[in-house]
Each structure stands twice: as structure tokens, then as C-alpha cells.
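Researcher: Here's the sequence for the chain we discussed earlier.
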Amino acid sequence: MYIPNKFSNHFLKDDFLYIAYSGKIKESESLSSVFLHSKCSGFDEIVWGKEIIRILKGAQIYSNYDISDIVQQLKEKKEWLIKTYPEEFGQDKWDFDVDIYFDDDKME
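Model: Thanks. This is the structure I predict for it:
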């Protein structure tokens, strides 16, 4: 389960990817959304920052897990940053092509 942080102008830095090796991850409704790192239960690992895309890339290459929904969320986060912080993420300021990154089956 990917939880993007939409409270700051960072791509992935303050986002979290919850990983469960068996069972289901559940979003905890009783916990404050301010504490994104404790927003879920039923997970085995949690990663943040650039490790999110590295873990997803590994899952894409080495497992049968379908990451397409999370990749879509990454695209949405990118678009949100461009719209919300155009001075930092606007045209010719920054670019991370999500589609190109996940297009091939090579670890980078």
C-alpha cells in the first residue's frame, strides 16, 4: 500500500510504501493522518523516499505482484506536485518519467 504525502513539496521523501508478505494491509481509520508512518496495520515492512521506486522495480522484475495501481499513484503524485508547486516542479524545473522508469525490466 502506497501512502503519498500531500503536505509538502517532496517527491517520495515523505511518502510511505507498506509491504506485507502475507495477509492484507489495512488503513487505520482511528490514527491521525498527520502520522503517515503509522496509518496502516498488517504490514511487515515500511519504506520511504527513493527506496519506494527501487522496491517497486524489484517487485516488477522478480515477483508476480501487479504494481500498476501504485505506479498510477506515483503519476498522480507527480502531477499534484507540478500543479501545486509549479515554481519547483513546473516545466523545465524537474522531471521524473514514471513510465520510462517502469518500462524496462532492468534494475538501475
